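Changelog-adjacent note: as of this version, every example in the card shows the full chain rather than a window. The one below runs 68 residues end to end.
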Amino acid sequence: MIKVVRGNPTPEELAAALAVVQARAAAAANAPSGAGPVPAAWSDPARVARERLPAPGPAAWGRTYWPA
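Full-length structure tokens:
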């Protein structure tokens, strides 16, 4: 049961809101229960961007992709 708590929606607005709720419920019911394996944290590209870039200098090219 859905109850309008605030406002006075038109029948079209109420129908649109109910259509969205029904579509979400149908999508959740059809979704597989096992979403699959969670990727390992070491393969996350954001992990590399968390650290600061190496300071420029003669040996900076050697420290480009290796964490300190």
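Structural remarks: The chain has two helices and no strands.
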